[in-house]
Design goal:
Blueprint lengths: L2 E5 L4 H12 L7 E6 L4 E3 L2 E4 L14 E4 L3 H14 L3 E3 L6 H10 L4 E4 L5 H17 L4 E8 L9 H13 L5 E4 L12 E8 L5 E9 L2 E9 L3 H14 L5 E3 L1 H5 L2
Parallel strand pairs: 1-2, 1-5, 2-4, 5-6, 6-7, 7-13, 8-10, 9-10
Antiparallel strand pairs: 3-4, 8-11, 11-12
C-alpha cells in the first residue's frame, strides 16, 4: 500500500484527493500518512506540518507526495523532497522561474512529475490540437478561450499556455501569443495565437481551442465538472513515478507508458 503525503492537505484539492481515495476503489490502496499546510496540526488524524523545508526527520515517511498548494509554498516542498529523496507530483499552478529551478534541482535527487493541468482529458486535447495544427497552420486563425471560477487568480490559465505551447511545438513556424484584443484595431494575423480568459461564478474549468478558417471552424473543447478529475490525474501520476529514477517527468511520459 503506497504511503502518500499531501501538500495543501486542508485545501480544496487536498480534500478532493482524500475523497477520491475513500470513494474510488481504484485508488483505495493509497494511505495518506502526512501532510503540509499553513498550520501545524492534524487532518483526519494525519499529522500536518507548516514548514516543509524543516520537516525532514519529523514527518512520517511517504512513498510519494502530491502538491496542490500555492506557488509561494512549493519551494519548501521541493526542498523537502530533495532532502528526503521523496518522489513528488507538483500540481500547483502559476509557477515561476524560481520554482522551476528548484524543481530541476530536486529532480537530480528524486523523481518529480509536473504538469500545468492534471486532467488526462486536457492533455489529450493538447495532443489532438498538435495533430490538427500543422495541417491548417497556413490558412486558419488559432484562438484559445478559457473560463474559470471567480476565485482563480492567474489569467490566462496555465492550461491555456500549455495548449498554446503544445500547438506551437507542432508548427513549422512559431506563432506569437496575443493576450486579449482590447485596443487592437488590426485584423488578427495568421502568425498569432489569441489567448482569452473569462472569470465568473463557480466554473471549474473550460478550455476551447478554435481553428477558424474560411467558411469553417474546428473547435476542441474540454469541460471540467468536478475538481476530482485533477485529483484522479494526480493519483495516476503518483502511482506512475513511485520507483522511477530521478528526473523530471510529465504527462507525455504518463500517457505514452
Amino acid at each position: 500500500m503506497p504511503k502518500l503525503g499531501i501538500s495543501g492537505i486542508g485545501g480544496r484539492m487536498g480534500s478532493a484527493l482524500r475523497a477520491v481515495i475513500k470513494e474510488n476503489p481504484v485508488y483505495a490502496g493509497f494511505e495518506v500518512v502526512m501532510g503540509f499546510d499553513l498550520e501545524d496540526g492534524e487532518v483526519d488524524g494525519v499529522p500536518v506540518f507548516s514548514a516543509p523545508e524543516s520537516a525532514a526527520g519529523k514527518a512520517p515517511v511517504a512513498d510519494v507526495l502530491i502538491d496542490f498548494s500555492n506557488y509561494c509554498f512549493v519551494g519548501g516542498v521541493l526542498k523537502y523532497c530533495e532532502a528526503t529523496k521523496t518522489p513528488a507530483v507538483i500540481a500547483t499552478t502559476a509557477l515561476g522561474e524560481p520554482e522551476m529551478a528548484l524543481m530541476k534541482s530536486a529532480a537530480k535527487q528524486t523523481a518529480i512529475f509536473h504538469s500545468a493541468n492534471m486532467s488526462l482529458g486536457v492533455n489529450l486535447v493538447a495532443k489532438m490540437s498538435q495533430l490538427a495544427a500543422p495541417a491548417i497552420e497556413d490558412g486558419f486563425n488559432i484562438e484559445i478561450v478559457e473560463a474559470h471560477h471567480n476565485k482563480k487568480k492567474d489569467a490566462p490559465s496555465g492550461t491555456a499556455i500549455l495548449l498554446a505551447d503544445a500547438i506551437n511545438e507542432s508548427l513549422s513556424e512559431r506563432k506569437e501569443y496575443i493576450f486579449g484584443r482590447h485596443g487592437r484595431e488590426e485584423a488578427p494575423s495568421l502568425s498569432e495565437i489569441g489567448i482569452h480568459a473569462v472569470r465568473g461564478g463557480s466554473i471549474p474549468g473550460r478550455h476551447t481551442v478554435m481553428f477558424a478558417g474560411p467558411d469553417e471552424v474546428i473547435e476542441i473543447t474540454h469541460n471540467v465538472y468536478s475538481n476530482k478529475v485533477f485529483a484522479v490525474g494526480a493519483l495516476k501520476a503518483a502511482g506512475f513515478i513511485i520507483g522511477k529514477e530521478p528526473g523530471l517527468y510529465d504527462m507525455n511520459d504518463l500517457l505514452s507508458k
